[in-house]
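Private note to self, pasted from the team thread so I don't lose it. Backbone tokens:
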């Protein structure tokens, strides 16, 4: 299948490209992970607000399976945030939202066209929400000690490696390229069953072939530095540039809501 993937870089993400009628509107939610808090205090706070009441028993078991407190917090807050935020888009109680999962593990809303995707790194979780077209999001913390060189040949095409190595900030460029690849793979829903090396993500238009039928031929990706040392990319099945609307959902600043 022939694919086109246009990649762009947003330097002023408060005014994203094509912020008008001919664009794909994407809500991008920043969610503090509170990974440094004691896990029991996060659970107690969630109970006090009634948030645990709208998590089904199987979802409550998911965050309890993690060993580290920071992972438990991140998972629990992610689950609560996704239901709380999507309920605002759908205008239904969080408890009534029904999720499904694709063959390769991508979650989706049952019988509803609204699209969403979740990512996390470091101290933050990000949720992208769009209307109808498949989308994916990835965020990475740009650690100055991260040894990226050993991954270049495993993940990137030769011209991408050249661009990374010749750029003014090779580490930053590495994460720009990496988050684009992962956002695209999450958007198409096949994950790493498609090798990252098969997806070119240079700035501008990229044309390539895949043996899998993605259902869409034209894709767009945007990349930005949402916070100091955090690179985020969003990919979606559209030729239109997305208009990104950023917002914050803070677990520790929420009021009690009805489930």
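Design output:
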């Amino acid at each position: 299948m022939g694919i086109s993937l246009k990649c762009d870089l947003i330097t002023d993400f408060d005014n994203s490209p094509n912020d008008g009628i001919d664009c794909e509107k994407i809500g991008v939610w920043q969610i503090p992970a509170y990974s440094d808090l004691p896990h029991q205090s996060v659970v107690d706070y969630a109970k006090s607000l009634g948030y645990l009441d709208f998590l089904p028993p199987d979802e409550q078991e998911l965050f309890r399976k993690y060993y580290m407190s920071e992972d438990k917090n991140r998972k629990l807050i992610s689950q609560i945030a996704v239901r709380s935020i999507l309920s605002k888009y759908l205008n239904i109680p969080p408890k009534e939202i029904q999720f499904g999962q694709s063959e390769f593990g991508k979650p989706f809303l049952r019988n509803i066209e609204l699209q969403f995707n979740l990512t996390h790194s470091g101290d933050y979780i990000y949720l992208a929400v769009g209307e109808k077209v498949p989308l994916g999001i990835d965020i990475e913390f740009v650690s100055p000690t991260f040894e990226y060189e050993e991954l270049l040949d495993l993940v990137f095409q030769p011209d991408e490696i050249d661009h990374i190595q010749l750029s003014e900030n090779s580490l930053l460029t590495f994460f720009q390229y990496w988050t684009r690849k992962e956002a695209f793979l999450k958007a198409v829903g096949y994950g790493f069953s498609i090798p990252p090396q098969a997806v070119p993500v240079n700035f501008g238009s990229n044309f390539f072939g895949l043996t899998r039928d993605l259902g869409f031929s034209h894709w767009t990706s945007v990349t930005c530095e949402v916070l100091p040392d955090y690179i985020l990319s969003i990919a979606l099945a559209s030729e239109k540039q997305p208009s990104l609307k950023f917002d914050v959902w803070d677990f520790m600043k929420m009021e009690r809501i009805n489930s």
